[in-house]
Amino acid sequence: MKKLLILLTACVALALTFAACGDDNNDDNGGGSSAATTTTEQTDTTAAKKPSGGQTVEVSMKDIAFNPGSITVNKGDTVTWTNDESIGHDVTKTDGPGPDFSSGDPGGMGEGDTFSETFKTAGEIKYECTVHAPSMSGTITVK
Fold this sequence. Notes:
Layout: H1 2-20, H2 35-49, E1 56-61, E2 66-67, E3 70-73, E4 78-83, E5 92-95, E6 114-118, E7 123-128, E8 137-142
């Protein structure tokens, strides 16, 4: 009887694992509603736009600051921001050439969430965390 109970428990655990790994295809009908899902979708979308040969530059969000606060990249490079603390942040363009970008809702990036953007237009781009601006801001120089 004890072996049967262990086998049954293992089967239930396996079934739950497979259920959690279910079909994750998001169509254009809204996808998920959580911040983590939104962040993942944005990262996936941005990665698809990344031209081959471009480099990725990492920016950490820690101690209510972008680290590093100023970076220089080449056209076609991607910047990936990672929230490395438990306080919610966001990344929102405030000035500069090229299209506007935003990671989503103010403070919507939780700990461990990432957001990426590929830069195709030369110039100086300013961005901020809208929750902690003006002290939490950064600059990207695109060559």
